[in-house]
Amino acid sequence: MPAFLPTSFRHLLPFLLLPLILLGTALGLAGCDGNSLDDSPRPSVPQEAGRFSGEAMVRQADVAGAALPANGAAEAPDFRIEERRGYSLQFEEAEPLLAAYRETHEACVATPDCRVEQGRLQTPRHGLASGYLAMRVARDRVDEAEPVRLVAESPALSGVEITRNDRTQQMIDTEARLAQQVVLRERLKELAQEGRGFSERRIQDLLQVERELARVQGEIESMQGQQRHLTRVTDTVAITASFQEQRWVEPREHGVLAPLWRALDRSMALFFESVGQVILVVVFLTPWLVLGLPVLWLLSRLWRPVRRAFSRLGEKRRKTPRRDPEA
Fold this sequence. Notes:
This protein is 58% helix and 15% strand. The radius of gyration is 51 Å and the shape is elongated. The protein has a five-stranded mixed sheet. By secondary structure, it is α+β, with helices and mostly antiparallel strands. It has helices at residues 7-33, 54-67, 94-110, 146-152, 168-197, 203-235, 258-319; strands spanning 81-91, 114-122, 130-138, 157-166, 236-245. It contains seven helices and five strands; from the N terminus they run ααβαββαβααβα.
């Protein structure tokens, strides 16, 4: 105790400080346990406020769907690459082309990880043979697939084209929008179920929720189709093989005498084309001649008696004397 205080006051000082200490402790405990300003009681909502329209329900569901992110959106995505490989093969004759086409096609059909999407083979009587084969091979087996090996190691291979397209961002966007639409669909289902339980809710509100639910379901199915397509084109590699019979250029088509050779070729072609036209005309008229000659012979046989009858009638008219009108 300080020395300047009186002796009597020193004995009373502890009794005076004790009530102050107790009062401060009580105030401190009241401040910790008391409710804050944010926890003040909210005014009661009237019953009429619970009746909100279908637009409000749809808007509430949109907010709920947009607030929830897609699962795993923050994780690093896997790269989705669409790859296409095009092989061009040229052959000197049609027989090796047909053999290579059929061997590649049969190898793809026999391989489980390969699927033929399109095939075309043309062998015209007058012209060059050609073929086209479009296949889909699993990405992890593309380097080991038998049809790809046959095409890539063929001695007739003349060109290779490889293109790659990154579809990662498109896949991420599709998955995120699909997840949001699924959440929105579940929320709309809950709202529609709640609406059927209250008789005072208007029918048009429920109809609007049902229409929005049908629209969301259609978008979900469309996005699922896009997701399946992206998965298919990124999990497989598109392989195209073009088979073409090559026509060798003769030396006479280039040089000083090239115009003369071309003129002779055109002249011979024109001559034989004219001969062909004459043959066509003869072949066209032959059936008519075969049918027309007997008909002409028969008509000539029938015309002779008729002509004789007309000639006799004319002679009789000439021999009959004419009467004089004055007599």
